[in-house]
Amino acid sequence: MQFEFKNNFIGYYKFYYKVVGKRLFLSIFLSIIVSLLDGIGLAMFMPLLQNVSDTKTNNAQSMGHLHYVTDAISSLGFPLTLGTILIVLVILFSLKGFMKFLEMNYQAKVMQFFMKRVRHKLVTDLQQISYKGFLEVDAGKIQNTFIAEVQRMSQAVKSFLSYTQALFMLLSYVGLAILANYQFAILVAISAGLTNMIYRYFYKKMKSASYEISKKGNDFNSYMIQAINYFKYLKSTNYLGKYSKKLGQVINNTELLNKRIGYYTAVTSGIKEPMILIIVAGVIYVQIHFMGGNLGSIILSLILFYRALIFLMSIQQQWQAYIQNTGAMVNVSELLHTMELHKENLGNQEFINIESNIIVENVDLSYGANKILNNIDIIIPKNNTIALVGESGSGKTTLANIIIGLISPDKGRILVDGTPLQSYDLNSYRDKIGYISQDSVIFNDDIYNNITFWSDKTEKNLKRFWEVVEMTSLKSFIAGQANKELTRLGDNGILISGGQKQRISIA
Description:
Low-confidence stretches: 52-63
Helix content: 55-70%
Radius of gyration: 34 Å
Structural class: alpha+beta
Shape: elongated
Strand content: 5-15%
Order of helices and strands: HHHHHHHHHHHHHEEHEEHHHHH
Distance between the termini: 40 Å
Number of strands: 4
C-alpha cells in the first residue's frame, strides 16, 4: 500500500479511499440520510405553522415541490392535523438522532482504522529499511514523524471526514431548498460560491505555513535527540546554554508560523457570518421585488438554506483545520516513500547454523570518494575467534557490519558455507548473531527485560536468566538493588556505571 496523494481535494479523497476502502462510502451515505431526515423534518414546520395559525395557504405554494411529503402523509389516510404533524416531527427527528449516532460512531471507527493502518505501516517500513538507508534519514525526522506528525495527521483525518460529512449535508439541504424555491436557492448558491474564492487565498497561505511547521518540527526533534544523548557532555562543558540557543531559534520560528496561521484563521472566521447575512438579505430582496417569489416558499427555502449555510461555515472551518495539518500528511508520506526506497532485500533461504566457515571474498567498499575496504579476503572457520586490528578509521567496524549483513559491499561477496549471504533470509541469519558495540545498548527498562529482551517470565527463561547473570558476574550487583532484577536502568543506562552497562550488554 502506497501512501501517496495529489495535493487537491480529489487527490486527498482517493488517498483516503485507498486506505479505508468502502468504509468511506458508508460514512458519506449515513451523512446523506441524516441530512435528508433533518431537511424533511424542517419542511414539516411549514404545515405546522399554517395549522396553528389556521392559515389555509396551499401547500404546493408554500412548500414548493416538497408538498409531495405532506401529500404522501395524506394519501396514507392521516389528515394534516396538529397531532399528526407533531407525531411525524417526533418520528423524523428521533430517527435522525439514531442515524446521527450511527454516523458519528462509524466515523470514529473509520478514523481509528485509518490511523491504525498508518502507524502499522510506519513501524513495518522502519523494520524493513536497510541499515545504509537508515543512516541517510535524519533521526529527528523519524521521531517527529512517528510522534508529532502522526498526531497532526490524525487531526487532519478527523477534519477531512467532518468536511466530507458537512459537504454532503450541505448538498442535501441545497437540494431540498431548490425543491422548495429553486430561484431563491440558486441565487444563494451562486453568491456563496463566489465568496468562497476569497477563502481560497487564505487557505493557500495556511497550507504553505503548515509545510514549514512540519520542517521546523523535524529540526526541533533532531536537536532534542542530540541534547538528550549528549546531555552529560553539554552540561559538564557548559555548552548546554549555547546549544539551547539553537533550540530557541527553532521554537521562535515555529511559533511565528503558528501566529501567521492564527491570523489567517481569525480573518476568515470574522468575515463568515457577515458575508452570509449580506448574501441572504440581498437575494430575498431581489426575489421579492424583481422576481415575484412566494414568501412562504422563500421562508421554507430560507430555513433549509440557513441549515445549509451552517454547514457551509462548517465546511470552511473543517477545510481550514485540514489545511493546517496537511504538512503532516506530506511529512508522513515522504518518510514512508524514503523507507520504501531503501527497503532491505531479504533472501528466501532460511539460515540454520554454520557448518564450515564464513568467507570474505574480494570485498571493496567506499563511502563517496573515500575507499574504506580494498580487495579484502578472509576465511573465518567455525568455532574460531579472530581479531581485526588496525588504526581508527581503517574499516574494522565496517567489515564487521558487512559480515553480519548490515551493509552490502560495492564489490565481492560474503559466503556462508559456500552460499552467498544475500541468498539467506537475513533476519534468520541475524537471529544467530550476538553483537556488543563500543557503546552498550541499554533500554529504559528493568534488568530482566534488558537481558532477556522482554521474554516471558517462564520457569525456563528465569533459570536461563540467572545462569547468564552468574556467568557475567552480575549476581552481586543485582542482589544489592532494592528491586533486584526489576531495577530500572534509565535512558541509555544513565542510572548505572559504564562497566555495569557493558556486563548487561554482554549478558
